[in-house]
Amino acid sequence: MPNLDSELVARSLRGDERAFRELLTRHHGVAYAVVRAILGDRDDVDDVMQVVYLKAYQGLKSFRGDAKFSTWLYQIARREAIDASRRRRRDVTDIEDVPLPADPADAADAPLRERDTREWLDRAMGEIEAHYRTAIELRYMAEKSYEEIAAIMDLPEGTVKTYVHRGKIELKRILSRPDWRARTAENQ
Hints:
The structure is a single chain. The protein is an all-alpha fold and 188 residues long. The chain has helices at 5-13, 17-39, 42-59, 69-88, 110-125, 130-141, 146-153, 157-175, 178-187. The chain contains 9 helices and no strands. The radius of gyration is 19 Å and the shape is globular.
């Protein structure tokens, strides 16, 4: 039977570093998804994740167990991402400047196309509201159930489903804009 989070927390508080690493590994997807949803830029995300893990380690003794460990870690990650976002306040890349994937018929460029597609989708995700983006990333990148996302985001499950649905509609709207389609056709 796998260790419960509460057991791992107790072992971590006694100095068991492996238990703490297991906690972080187990819940990395949740923390990463929220930080990435707020910040978007992978370099910034990696920097903030280091801070999140440090704050989780330093604050572990204040974890009371009233909520799930994943919810507690999510809250730390969210606060740190919002703080980092406020600090950076840099310009957002215009959607017309987004590099698009190469011609899908050329199989030799598959890894490049995959990277370009991820970057293209990341840019489009950056266009939607943060709470929609967070819900979508937790659902599809962190592979969480609606129930888990509701607990993590501290929202009713119906609201989470609405956020995912509306986020997907927003993505479709962005990707089907005439200027976006024209840019796509131009780069093929």
